[in-house]
């Protein structure tokens, strides 16, 4: 193990950081600005707002202002950018950049944090490469003295990508993309109810002039009938193909059709495909009542999602660390996200790859364009293709001489309901049918299994499930221990060859019990896969679970409202209790996303001294212009320091300074329609799980005996996201990583983000940055051979 590295060794004393937003605005930019400002001040650097992007840098004067801790209070939940953004022609000229350099040197700024798209970041890099020449020119003109030229000899640049289109290569998600998907899905869900009433077809046009990410993911998240994106244009004759798919879906008694068109959609000859063109085609060919909805700037607006706030806060802190560690030789870098990991990549490598996508599309090399967009984009596209079209009987895999390909696969939900479970079931059923299997739905978990509540489920049965909250199949927390014989009997009766269990900690425990009971029950010697789905995010073997994002958004939305209430009444502190069992994920990440002052969790023990310190911290805060407080507490964080106790303690100790209110959020965290992230994650992870089951079924089929027999450890796996990858892990191996008494993993990645929440709330703390720092190179996929 390498020595741990802590950021306390990095000092910003004597350094000045300028932060600007440029290009199109995106929700979450303010969270990034807030993180840069607070982290910068925390490490004793001076931090400056550069208003109106590069235009403000060129104009100087009141556009470049030093800021304080309080300057960024209450902006976390605000959409757009509070420091303004403008496209600047002057900065594209050397004269403009000369003025900008002069204005920065006057303030002593040699560290720039640029939040924008590829154009803004390219401009920043040009500025950096010209910097020493610009200073020499300024010195020769007498605008700056020789001492200043030497003192500010080099400029450091760190970029963060703020773009709702997710059109920047090198990062899985750009700041603003998740929030834009929230806006799109809110509209789609609303449209679906009216479309169903009148049996209408709706053509939705979403943003994405050069990138189809928003169109593709929203199509995946709502189960759209057809999608048009620039990177993957339809083949010749798409008009016939689209109309036949729409009429087939209507023939299956589907009352509505949804078609999603990216604004930059093209055909294979690079000719535009417009939403009006698609609408006219449907009306002329099929005679369906068809309407067009163009979402436009609605997608840019509104409050940022929990995901975007956390992403932007992580990126902002990482950007400051990158600036503190930068040397004159360090290339300009961009802070990005790979899987669940924050990484630093050379800015120009990412820009070059982004430009290569457009070049590939211009040259009609569409397969290269898809590959260059990255692994996440490819997975989304492949999953959509598998789920959108039902194969005909002749296209399905048939029995092969060497092995059987048609098996019976059962799907069930176990544990508490989690938003996104239904999207996962839909994906599992459709991928299973595509693979040639018979899919069986089990209602009410293992309890229903033992009672024989098992029935075959078809392609059409799961239509419209992606947007539904809760669990349509029904779910119970019952473990299979008491029902082993009956479950084995039902497996025998229905010839179940594989099992997909979608659920939380109980799903993990249940499959562990089945694996351990294989010596007694041969029926359990089949491939079994767990897909983690729980709002608590407490399943070992995965960083994220289906449902946690939806729950986090519900918490953050409530906290936003409560903060507004507290701001109105002044000098008020709210104590909010979240769910999660013994897992503090929701409390900790909710606190980070809502800008809370403290979060009490089971994983980090606290005592009366810490509670007293928090009260004193809030007392000091009330002397500033930010006269409100927000404290989150996980439901099982302490046996004795209950929500009531903390409320009463704060009320007593804060007498005369602030008053208190408490709020127990309860089951509202479990309900509601799934967020776009949970729909997408549930769909992709479940599809991958079924493909794995198919592979295992073929491997474990004993042709001589005509049956499946799998009893190795790696035939009962949990599919989880670990840092950057989705990986299958045998449940037996995960047993040692689990605290069964408290139903949590022994190690949890998000605890590393805990100091982040404390730093942004103005607490002195220690922050392990061992994972950060190393500049990586962009992975370029090999071009596809013709």
Automatic annotation (TrEMBL):
Tell me if Phosphoprotein is a UniProt keyword of this record: yes
Q: Which positions are catalytic residues? A: 165 (proton acceptor)
> Recorded GO terms, molecular function?
6-phosphofructokinase activity; ATP binding; metal ion binding
Query: Recorded E.C. number(s)?
Result: 2.7.1.11
Which top class of enzyme applies to this chain? transferase
User: What subcellular locations does the record give?
Assistant: Cytoplasm
Cofactor field = Mg(2+)
Which cellular components does GO assign to this protein?
Answer: cytoplasm
Chain residues that bind ATP = 24, 87-88, 117-120
Name the pathway it acts in.
Answer: Carbohydrate degradation; glycolysis; D-glyceraldehyde 3-phosphate and glycerone phosphate from D-glucose: step 3/4
UniProt GO BP: fructose 6-phosphate metabolic process
Name the segments for region: N-terminal catalytic PFK domain 1.
Answer: 1-389
Coarse class of the primary localization is cytoplasm
All copies of the Phosphofructokinase domain together span 17-322, 408-692
What keywords would UniProt list here? Answer: Acetylation, Allosteric enzyme, ATP-binding, Cytoplasm, Glycolysis, Glycoprotein, Kinase, Magnesium, Metal-binding, Nucleotide-binding, Phosphoprotein, Transferase
Q: Give the reaction(s) catalysed.
A: beta-D-fructose 6-phosphate + ATP = beta-D-fructose 1,6-bisphosphate + ADP + H(+)
Residues making up the signal peptide according to the UniProt record: none
What does the record note on quaternary structure?
Answer: Homo- and heterotetramers.
Q: What does this protein do?
A: Catalyzes the phosphorylation of D-fructose 6-phosphate to fructose 1,6-bisphosphate by ATP, the first committing step of glycolysis.
Q: Which family does it belong to?
A: Belongs to the phosphofructokinase type A (PFKA) family. ATP-dependent PFK group I subfamily. Eukaryotic two domain clade "E" sub-subfamily. Belongs to the phosphofructokinase type A (PFKA) family. ATP-dependent PFK group I subfamily. Eukaryotic two domain clade 'E' sub-subfamily.
Can you say what this protein is called? ATP-dependent 6-phosphofructokinase
* Species for this entry: Anolis carolinensis (Green anole)
Q: What is the phylogenetic placement of the source species in the record?
A: Eukaryota, Metazoa, Chordata, Craniata, Vertebrata
Report the gene name.
Answer: PFKP
